[in-house]
Amino acid sequence: MTQLRFLLNDTEIALTEVGASDTLLDHLRLARRMTGTKEGCAEGDCGACTVLAGRLTATGLVYEPVNACIRLLASCHATHIVTIEHLRGPDGGLHPVQAAMVDHHGSQCGFCTPGIVMALYGLWMTNPDADATEIETALQGNICRCTGYAPIIRAALAAGAAGGQAQDALSRERDAVAARLAGMRGARVSLARGADRALVPADTDDLAQLLLDEPKATLVAGATDVGLWVTKFMRDISPAIFIGHLMKDIAVEDGMIRLGAGVTYSEAAPLIARHVPQAAEYWSRIGGWQVRNAGTIGANIANGSPIGDTPPLLIALDARIVLRGGDTRRELPLEDFFIDYGKQDRRQGEFVEEVLIPMQPQARIAAYKVSKRRDSDITSVAAGFCIDVADGMITRARLAFGGMAGTPKRARRAEAALQGQPFAAASFDAAARAIAEDFQPLSDMRASAEYRATVARNLIRRFWLEQSEPGLPVRLRQSEGV
């Protein structure tokens, strides 16, 4: 196919001239003159550009809030994009979410309001009984600089109580929309705008062949990083192969969690909560909701960033990855994939196809993220710990950190200080001191080297406190009046 096809509100769009770096936001505002969707940051951080993306999954049609500013247009093939202009109540007036925002004074300057409404609309459809904490989580990726969040949260609670989901347009039209999207799938899509080329493979086998034919192509999954290459660094990513719709398999078998590389953070969240509950809170701090709906675990690994959120936890859990090149696959420990800063063990024509995570129900597990802003921020230091204890002795210790070196990396000297030692404060103090032998972190805009080293030591001590006294409060919580 040489056409990009998708639904925009109630209109079918077919485009032939589409470049790899074209964004959905520019198409909405410049080509369609749909200016309700705003550009605030152009990096997926403020949420003013939030729209809903409806896509077909194994369980049916799913709508999720995403950032239009870093959503590259080619990735919209066979999706339903819903903007603020499409919202309406059953009588054609204000939608219940919009009416609640008016009634509860949830807007002042109004610039951020369309994005907030769209995020709350996504929540209203999927979790109408959301409480204040769930609403705050849904709004992690939306920044309001003047209203304050209290009236917005009150509006969200009121909208949920008002109900009306069954009469909502997206609910009534769901079957018809799903059928239209299904009719758009099934063939490779080749697009271009001049020399700027975008390719959408039909399936994973097609991707494998396409990457052999185009070994220097940029792979684009959720574009939560690549989008910034385009909007902030003006980087040429052509030719780009868009893969966010592929490798969505999830399975739990033989003591192993198997995640296709295209599984998003949001798609994996229920599995993490069920099988690695110690990491559930950490998982909810990966970007904002819009980023978690778009970003994929495989791309977070393949990108090779030293501050990627998933590798420290996955390395601590002894995860492995499957790399595919053509019809050939090879499996290796995740920690061995990261060779040096910007260098991974990925051969020409290979891509990450699957992530394998051993389930370890008896292990003591923790995941920590430290950043300047609690929600929707980039990591300064991240850590994943997995420790086995038998008869009061530490029989195995895996400690992995991000932000402490040029790659996500295990703290082997700290691990050695724990191995075979009593599960006691002195052992963890020794491990904290050994961190200085594992890492010599750098200073940058996010944290100084001294701060990072101090945080890493203290996270090891925090783990001991949490594990030795499970009821001990180690940080302030909202429920305590903060």
Estimated structural class: alpha+beta
The helix count comes to 18
- The CATH architecture assignment of the domain at 4-85 and 173-242 turns out to be Roll
* Percentage of residues in DSSP E strands: 15-25%
Number of strands: 20
What oligomeric state do these chains adopt?
single chain
Can you give the helix content as a percent range?
Answer: 25-40%
Q: How would you sum up this structure, described in words?
A:
- The chain has 482 residues and is an alpha+beta fold.
- Among the domains are: 4-85 and 173-242, Ubiquitin-like (UB roll) (Roll), CATH 3.10.20.30; 90-167, [2Fe-2S]-binding domain (DNA polymerase, domain 1); 364-468, Enolase-like, domain 1.
- Helices cover 33% and strands 23% of the residues.
- The strands form five sheets. It has a five-stranded mixed sheet. Strands 10-11-16-12-13 form a five-stranded antiparallel sheet.
- Strand 3 and strand 4 (60-67) form a beta hairpin.
- It is globular and about 70 Å long.
- The model has no long low-confidence stretch (mean pLDDT 95).
Give the gist of this structure.
This protein has 482 residues and is α+β, with helices and mostly antiparallel strands. Among the domains are: 4-85 and 173-242, Ubiquitin-like (UB roll); 90-167, Orthogonal Bundle (DNA polymerase, domain 1), CATH 1.10.150; 364-468, CO dehydrogenase flavoprotein, C-terminal domain (Enolase-like, domain 1), CATH 3.30.390.50. The chain has helices spanning 24-31, 96-103, 113-126, 132-138, 149-162, 169-172, 174-182, 204-213, 226-231, 265-275, 280-283, 289-294, 297-302, 310-316, 334-337, 412-418, 425-438, 449-468; strands at residues 4-8, 11-15, 50-57, 60-67, 80-82, 189-193, 196-200, 218-220, 240-242, 250-253, 256-260, 320-325, 328-333, 338-340, 343-344, 350-358, 364-370, 381-390, 393-402, 409-410.
